[in-house]
Amino acid sequence: MDEEEVLPSQAGDHLAELLIQLRLKGVISAKQCCVLAHWASLAGAVGPCDKFAMKPGHQSGAYQRKLDSYLEIDKNEPFYMLKVPGMSPELGERVVHDVEVLPPHEILASEVEKDPGFLARVAAGAGQEEWPQLAGHPAVLAAGPGEVVVPLALYVDGVPYTKADSFLAFWLYDLVTYKRHLVCVLRKSRICACGCKKWCSLWEIFRWLHWSFRALALGAHPAERHDGRPWELVDHLRASAAGTPLVRGALVLLKGDWAEFCLSFGFPTWSSTKDPCMFCCSPKSQLSKIAGLSAFSFPHALKTNVGYADACEAAEKWVVLTREEHASIVPHLSYDKRKDAPKDNKLRNLSFPPQPHFAVTPWRRNFQGKKCSVSPSISSL
To answer: What local confidence, expressed as pLDDT, does residue 360 receive?
Structure first.
């Protein structure tokens, strides 16, 4: 655009758009955005800057509320609040982040409500030919005669949004319309880095997803929060819907690239010597050999859900500790910084919960010749 032809009103629009873009990208804070708009308006700038302009001196939260009002962000949206352990790059220590998420069962219920013909298409067989595993899904087997069960997918992927940071995103979509819904976003710079391989943060996400997908499988709205606690005051609408009928859904597809299955779902990576493949039992030395591979045969034994569950169960050993046992163990826990040390066994300064007993789960990476570095997160889904 020729600067000589730009009208003052157009210049004001571009200025407001630039300030909002800088705020949404995290380059400037809400306070800086509103204060810059304030001084620009006093300097004679026209356009929408005066709609989110605020002079210095207000509390920091007031600036964000002003921006939310200008951007028409409705804080009454049905967000569900998660307390997710993570890291603070600014403080350099572990913190608990408030993460706003959208429960999949509520999204699917809303989609059915907005599309009256949706369930009729599912009942007519839409998606069932493409996803034959739906027929044997526990949610389908538990459904009543003639009850519709919607096939669902969960897609997980990393998305860069600045040069220095990216986020881990979770999408839900039904396998009938393939309409995709963003349900959760985690900034990777905020994910726990205590040596847990992101497990501290992802556990809370997977526990919440399990709670929501379980509600879809049972066909009823949850009676309590995902962590077993009673509903909070902000969840009054969810509390009033507790136990009421809900459209049934069955999770039949986990979608993501190979890296995401390794980094988020906990499968061994392709660099593993004993177990580089998620789908077969080939060692790394045999992974690229194609002898015996055809349309009718496969040279290696294929992995199954039963085998995966057995390997996880064999690798887990639940131990319940008393307060006294906990106090005696904690002083002996420390980080093992050796290069060849198991990275998922770094423990230090465990905090003791208010319960008189709590359970820990030592995780054996190798058991009976099997590589068991798969985290139990995927079993929650």
So the answer is: 56
Q: Where are the beta strands (DSSP E) in 77-165?
A: 80-88, 93-101, 149-160
- In a domain, residue 65? The reply is yes
List, in sequence order, every residue forming a beta bridge with 101; answer none if it has no partner.
80
Q: What is the sign, positive or negative, of the torsion defined by CA atoms of 20, 21, 23, 27?
A: negative
Give the pair of three-digit tokens for residue 369. 């010749």
**pLDDT tens digits along 305-319:** 888 878 777 777 777
Look at residues 211, 243, 263 and tell me which one is the last residue of a structural domain. 263
Q: Is the domain of 51 the same as that of 157?
A: no
Name the phi and psi angles at 80, rounded to 5: -110, 130
For the four alpha carbons of 128, 132, 133 and 138, in that order, the dihedral sign comes to: positive
Residue with tokens 């509600």: 215
The CA-based angle 193-204-328, given to 5 degrees, is 65
This prediction's pTM:
0.70
Q: Where are the alpha helices (DSSP H) in the chain?
A: 8-24, 30-42, 60-70, 104-114, 118-123, 138-142, 199-218, 236-241, 258-263, 305-315, 323-329
Q: Are residues 182 and 221 in the same domain?
A: yes
Token pair recorded at residue 25: 């990208």
DSSP, collapsed to helix, strand or coil, labels residue 179 as coil
How many Å apart are CA 221 and CA 352, to the nearest integer?
Answer: 32
